[in-house]
Amino acid sequence: MATQARAWQRMLSGRRLDLLDPTPVDIEIEDIAHGLAFVARWNGQTAGDFAYSVAEHSLLVEELFGRIAPKAPVKWRLAALLHDAPEYVIGDMISPVKSAVGPDYGALDDRLAAAIHIRFGLPAAVPKTVKRQIKKADKISAWMEATQIAGFSEAEATKFFGRPDKAVMEGLEITLRPPVDVRRAYSERHEVLIAQL
């Protein structure tokens, strides 16, 4: 008799998250902040003394989203902060790997995102108009990351991520910090947004 493969992960909070059937009650912001602070973007291929984490990226995307949609309700800023939250358990796969894995990756990501959204008072699925704005902020962040820390020329980054609005990026720079600092910053920003809901 074959044993069934384990499809859950024990979190530092003590929660046991079932990846095939995630429930909002097993989602804790401390686990998300911790996991994202230790997950490197760009497969760790970035300049600097610390990896550029998904948590740091998420903070930047939320800031850019706020500049793109300054009148958006706070709940959509929270959605922007949480846009990559499933990666706290599934990691950050670069786009070519996602393409190779196929649609199963997207389905897993969607299940986790829905549970995370519900846990923090958001609808399971973000409206398409808001999702497009968050994606725009995500692409601007990727362009900034590519040109500032991942070795891309501006022309090459523009080819892959589009030409960003320079005004939206004004005064922003990529920050590389120790994971413990990024974890704290992510948790604090989440707390601020939740308090404003």
TrEMBL record:
Which residue range or ranges hold the HD/PDEase domain?
Answer: 50-152
Q: Which domain of life is it from?
A: Bacteria
The UniProt entry, under Pfam families, shows: HD
SUPFAM superfamilies, per this entry? Answer: HD-domain/PDEase-like
Q: Which InterPro entries match?
A: HD/PDEase_dom, HD_domain
Protein name per the record: HD/PDEase domain-containing protein
